[in-house]
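User: I'm writing a tutorial on reading structure tokens. Could you give me a worked example: one chain, its sequence, then its tokens, then a sentence or two explaining what the tokens reveal?
Assistant: Sure. Here is the example chain.
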Amino acid sequence: MGEALNRREFLKLGAAAAFGAAVAPVFPPEQEALFGRPKLGRVTVSQISVYSLPRDDARILRQVFRDRVLHIYQEMTPPTGPSWNPTWFRVWGGFVHSAHVQAVEVRQNRVADAIPDGGQLGEITVPYTNTQRYSRFDGWTRLYRLYYRTTHWITGIAEGPDRTPWYELTDELGDTKFFVPARHVRLIPDSELLPISPDVPAGDKRVEVDLNRQTLTAFEGENIVLHTKISSGIHSNIITNGIPTNTPTGDFNISVKMPSKHMGEGRLTDNLEDYELVGVPWTAFFDPRGYAIHGTYWHNNFGVPMSRGCINMKNDEAKWLFRWLTPLSGTQDVDVRGHGTRLKIF
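And here are its predicted structure tokens:
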């Protein structure tokens, strides 16, 4: 790998990376005049359809493919539905259903001078970024693609293949090390990781998941502190790696919490179709077979069963719940284990 940066070189490269302008999206002026500056959305599956009207029986105009970033000019909920998720987005030249479009941003970040011993948690702040790994035999080779709002353990800084600062990431699954442009990662301050309601007795906290209504409710005593839509396991007879895709029902306790989790088989691959979910955020396991509550970046279809058995949540809500749940975790804990918050799934 490239030689370690001395401080002068590092600061020079860091400034260039931190303050270099992000590529500004180009918006059709007539659309911007009508609807204002659009938001951005990333296509999360292999392809979705653009329709002539916001309804699934309208004429299909074209297909857009995985990781295409769309300009969203308007969000709407027409009476045509569908009832389980009626939200549509107006995009350039038509309409797309929201189920497989993740809201994203393009935000560059200041590069840190140093990373604390033990690492620091960070999150991706661009629609996606490509990682690379280095070996003395093959040089730099492409590895995983990381997505907006995924979380990762940053363990170092090095000069990347483009001669700007890249963060070293250490994947907890197999302890694999790879690198990502530092400007694409926001270091999460300790203040965002501190426990929520730590003074509430652990026995007074509980969570209920209603699979019929696809909702999660968190309680402190009899007071509701969070109520939201989720996506549970798909109802099927499919067994994946010996585990049913149906979310189990019954009484559980949170047993392991991990702010970043690699879900998959741990293959070192850059194939976007492989089941390798790197950096799943705010993961709280409740069943030894691997079922967990966690944030989600691969769909936007909450209120509908979508998972292989886990409880999918919106990232912001999953982060809040992660901090609220027991066992309480520290700011540098890769994982924390214990007999935690009660969970009832019915």
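What the tokens reveal: The longest strand covers residues 276-285. The first helix runs from residue 7 to 19.
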